[in-house]
Amino acid sequence: MIKLQDIKNRARELLANGEVRAVIGYRNGSRGMAAEPAVIADPNDAANIVWNPSCVHNLALYLVDDRKRLTRKQETPTKPIAIMAKGCDARAIVVLLQENYFKREDVYILGVSCETTGMLDEHKLEQLKIRPDQFTAVEFDGDDFVLIKDAETQQRFPAREIMADRCLECRNPFPKLNNAVFGEEKARNLAAPFSALMQFEQNATQNTRWDFWQHQFERCIRCSACRSVCPMCYCEECIVDSITYSVMPDTTAEEKANRIRWIERSATRANNIGYHLTRALHLAGRCIDCGECERVCPVRIPLRLLNTKLERDARERFGYEPGASVEVASFVSSFRDNDPGNFIR
Amino acid sequence: MNESQPTPYEPKIVAFLCKWCSSAGSDLAGVSRIQYPANATPITVMCSGSVSPQYILSAFYKGADGVLVSGCHIGDCHYLEGNYYARRKLFLVNEMLQFIGIEPERFRMSWVSAAEGTKFAKVVKDFVEDLRHLGPQDKLKAQRP
Predict the structure, then answer these.
(1) CA distance A133 to chain B (A)
(2) What is the DSSP string of A222-268?
(3) Best residue in B57, B125, B129 to probe A by mutation, most A CBs within 10 Å?
(4) How many CB atoms sit inside 10 A of residue A333's CB?
(5) Cβ(A85)–Cβ(A173) under 8 Å?
(6) Whose CA is closest to B46, among B85, B9, B8?
(7) Mutate which of B91, B123, B125 to disrupt the A interface (most A C-beta within 10 Å)?
(8) Is residue A181 helix, strand or coil?
(9) What does the pLDDT average to over A243-260?
(10) Were both Cys, which of A279, B28, B43, B65 would link to B117 (CB 3.0–4.6 Å)?
(11) Average pLDDT for residues A290-300, to the nearest whole number?
């Protein structure tokens, strides 16, 4: 069991001693029990930090934001920035370090172990007719989540019933890469890794697969929420989004007009497929299954299926585990002599 | 023309051929006067490792019925290891296309050396044959209103 006070104390110390520029963490949001990401720079604000089952966000995204901001201002960080990282967040940081997005000494990882539970899934709560704003707080309690309205009214759920699928399937809820860690590495037995994917594959033939995905991709509105929330989607120029192509003062109208638009921005089925497949392939061996893309999708496309499919391929066919180590070469920039090649004639 | 026997569907193939082996191999098939279907549009690339998944999706988007990527045999890459990267990357593309329910016959990869004109002809011939059965590809193709 993690003592929240320990996290607060450590964050306050770090800020008061001037060891870090800021702490990226969670605080209570304006939507009932749901926590929100917060960048805390004042030691006194460290008391606002929370740690509860609604800390769903992958904060590694804000490290990327910070890095981009510094680059724009042409500043070199003098001190690291601290970040509260769950197991998945820490893996995301590992991937970013692997890709030299920032240096190890630029980030101070306050690891937080999910221990035997995980984060709750608002969609599952919704099925139980529960909205986050009906409650004021939510807490871990052993293997249960307790939703609290006030001192008298509480609702208790077994965590595995309202926990996010990605947390149920999580293999590494403990942040291995850390500067300080709260909570322990505990054995857990929730759901088999990739169970959502296996369930999908069991029920699908080639034809039903197409019917399924066609339906999903037709619904996509190309809001790019999945891209925005993804810590791995950090390219300034995005190949699937022509408005991000850089325009300099000397870029001529002709140059702009003649740029290759591999995928148009319009939300047609073919373009959407191109978008989602490209995104999945760009995340191959990089996606650490934080499940944020699926969580934020306004039309609820099961995007985790695409990403976990490639994650499983990387793992089973190539022996590559995303986010396991900073030292190894990244998945698509390396190869082995015995990579599968049966599909080649 | 006999109306009871409709003309077979002529599939369009986009073939990404590496400059050093497969492109030369296709040349050899030509100068050796090997007969093979003319359905493949060759696009010479510097290396099979330079074929981005984007090229393949884009070809399908623009109406290709099948996409062929062909490069040097493993170990023979002009750039020493380009085809190793291609193998890994395009394995994923192949898996992904099948995962969303695209017919596995639509994407093909082969190793064709500069000396294998006959092999190139066979690869294209087999590919065209498989695609004829499938008919037009409209899953990934841009829909025009």
Answers:
(1) 37
(2) ---HHHHH-TT---SS-TT-GGGS---TT--HHHHHHS--SS-SS--
(3) B57
(4) 12
(5) no
(6) B85
(7) B91
(8) strand
(9) 90
(10) B28
(11) 95
pLDDT digits (tens, 9 = 90+) for A35-51: 999 999 999 999 999 99
Confidence of residue B145 (pLDDT cuts 50, 70, 90): low
The CA-CA-CA angle for residues A29, A31, A34, to 5°, reads 65
What are the backbone dihedrals phi and psi of residue A186, each rounded to the nearest 5 degrees, phi first? -120, 145
Q: Residues 6 or more apart from A238 whose CB is under 8 A from it?
A: A227, A244
A23, A40 contact by CB (below 8 A): yes
Question: Best of A215, A277, A286 to disrupt the B interface by mutation (most B CBs within 10 Å)?
Answer: A277
- How far apart, in Å, do the first and last CA atoms of chain B sit? 32
Domains of chain B plus CATH, in order, are 13-129 (3.40.50.960)
B88 interfaces chain A, CB cutoff of 8 Å:
yes
Please state, in angstroms and as integers, the Cα–Cα distance from residue B21 to each residue in B27, B47, B83, following that order: 10, 9, 11
User: Which chain B residues contact residue A344 at CB under 8 A?
Assistant: 87, 109-111
Residue type, B13: I
Residue A182 and residue A173 in contact, taking contact as beta carbons nearer than 8 Å: no
Prediction ipTM score:
0.92
pTM of the complete model: 0.93
On whether the CB atoms of residues A95 and A286 are closer than 8 A, the answer is yes
Task: Tell me which residues of chain A have a C-beta less than 8 Å from any C-beta of chain B.
Answer: 204, 206-214, 239, 262-263, 268-271, 273-274, 277-278, 280-281, 284, 306, 309-310, 313, 317-318, 331-333, 335, 339-341, 343-345
Distance CA A310, CA A287 (A): 9
